[in-house]
Amino acid sequence: MQTLTIAIQAAEGLHARPAHLFCSTTAKYKSDLKIRNVTTNSKVVNAKSILLVLTLGVESGHEVEINATGEDEVEAIQALRDLISQDFPGN
Fold first, then answer.
1. Bridge partner residues of 26 (DSSP)
2. Which of 24, 26, 43, 47 has CB atoms 3.0–4.6 Å from 35's, for a disulfide?
3. What are all long-range contacts of 40-48, with beta carbons under 8 Å and residues at least 24 apart?
4. Which fold does the domain 2-66 belong to in CATH?
5. Is 28 exposed, middle or buried (0-12, 13-18, 19+ CB in 10 A)?
6. 69-75: long-range contacts (C-beta < 8 A, 24 or more apart)?
7. Which of 49, 51, 72, 58 is nearest to 5 (CA)?
8. Kind of pairing, strands 45-46 and 63-69?
9. Is the pTM here over 0.90, yes or no?
10. Are the CB atoms for 30 and 88 separated by under 8 Å?
């Protein structure tokens, strides 16, 4: 299992377009991907479901924890780290 804890710096947080980009990225991987909002101590949800990701209420500055388990877990975490670190390019 690979884990990434990272702050969301996008001005609108993980809403609408950034959530779509996030889930489009997670969908590319076979690994089981989960996410939770550390800042609000939310429940863990399926990171491939845009509806569940939106329920987390991730705002700018919130910290999230992403867990990946599976054959491409390292690649999945790296891709999500890059996406978030670049503030969701194309957003």
1. none
2. 47
3. 47/22, 47/23, 48/23
4. Histidine-containing Protein; Chain: A; (3.30.1340)
5. exposed
6. 69/1, 69/2, 69/31, 69/32, 70/29, 70/30, 70/31, 70/32, 71/30, 71/31, 72/29, 72/30, 72/31, 73/1, 73/2, 73/29, 73/31, 74/2, 75/29
7. 58
8. unpaired
9. yes
10. no
DSSP state letters, 43-89: PPEETT-HHHHHTT---TT-EEEEEEESTTHHHHHHHHHHHHHTT-T
Q: Is 15 a catalytic residue?
A: yes
Contact indicator for 75, 26 with CB cutoff of 8 Å: no
**Which one of 10, 13, 14, 15 is the catalytic residue?**
15
Tell me the per-residue pLDDT of 8-53, one tens digit each, with 9 for 90 and over: 999 999 999 999 999 999 999 999 999 999 999 999 999 999 999 9
